[in-house]
Amino acid sequence: MVAAAIFGITYVLISGRQMKILPLNRPAAALLGAVLMVSTGVMTPQRAYGAVNYDTLVLLLGMMLISAYLYLAHFFEWAADVILKYSHTPGRLLLYLTLTSGILSALLVNDTICLMLTPLVVAVIKRGKLPLLPFLIALATSANIGSVATLVGNPQNMIIGHFSHIPFSEFARSLAPAAIIGLAINFGILRFGFRSVLRAAVIIRKPDVVLKLDRGLNLAWTALAGAALVMVLGRRDTHEVLKLVDWHLLVFFAALFVVVEGLSDTGLPDAIYRNLQPMFGAQAAAQTWNLTWFSIAGSNIFSNVPFVLVAGKWIPHFADPVLMWKVLALATTFAGNLTIIGSVANMIVVESAREHLEIGFWDYARVGIPITALTTAAGILVLLVLH
Questions:
Q1: How far is CA 106 from the centre of its chain?
Q2: Closest by Cα among 14, 20, 1, 70 to 248
Q3: Rounded to an integer, what is the distance from CA 169 to the centroid of its chain?
Q4: 0.85 surpassed by pTM
Q5: Nearest-CA neighbor of 61 among 314, 250, 219?
Q6: 85-124 residue pLDDT tens
Q7: Does residue 104 sit in helix, strand or coil?
């Protein structure tokens, strides 16, 4: 009960805007939840340390450092000029962003794509004097949708690939069509939902600026190893670079891992499944739809990665385990678009752009809810047809 209460309080605090009674931002709210989990005895300090996914934090830190060097090299200003040159209307720019985010996320981890593209999107939109909200939401939602196409698109897909042993090509043949249709639906909803804002906006191009772009290292290396090498060879004051790292974001994720793990340790997710198990039915079609809604709810309550770790133990008991693994991948990934805190990718975009725009819970949810509902329904139908 204590763990559930702490999780609920933390969820409320990080879901909305700062309250006058308790003026905490999201990182501080998550840190409060983590401290409460330990101070109330729900978790030991050692268990809290073990709950933190250091691979995620190292990846974030490495990509932040690389982004900082790109920023100091004036890369984002240069790229913004190039993109605006070929985007003649706000609608076309929205389309280009949707496709770019979705395709790159299928090839790389969606969290990394959001981390790298958010500064670029902010630079492009501000240079073009356009509203930030529709484009930031497009970046996050498209990254989530596109990432479902392959086993390397997001962390939960990697976990599913490890447990299910589904070949990479088979997984892509089933999920890539769902991702393509999902991106089309996503663009349509965003284009319609922000039609008045986009119609009123006009891309303002500044005169061509000749920027001295630092031409240095090939930044194709990964995370911290690449970042460390760039720091050694970048010939810059590292204090200047480290100031650009979003330490608040790292604290937020580290604390959130502890809060989610504290709730999982209580056995509440397993208890919920035992009570709902009869509702899944006995036929593959019924189990598909029931697992879908259950995964959407579970991913938003417990976070998709912890939910997949727990739900993965149930899949072999279903009528068609291979289909259910694919359903689990699609539902937990598309569920990330439901709310701001539905996925790590969303939080990266929101927190990275907070200096330019504060996105509220309902600012996102009013388009996130229909995007999740329609893309998930269409994706499951595609899976059933192809399977």
A1: 13
A2: 14
A3: 24
A4: no
A5: 250
A6: 777 788 888 998 898 889 888 877 788 788 778 888 888 8
A7: helix
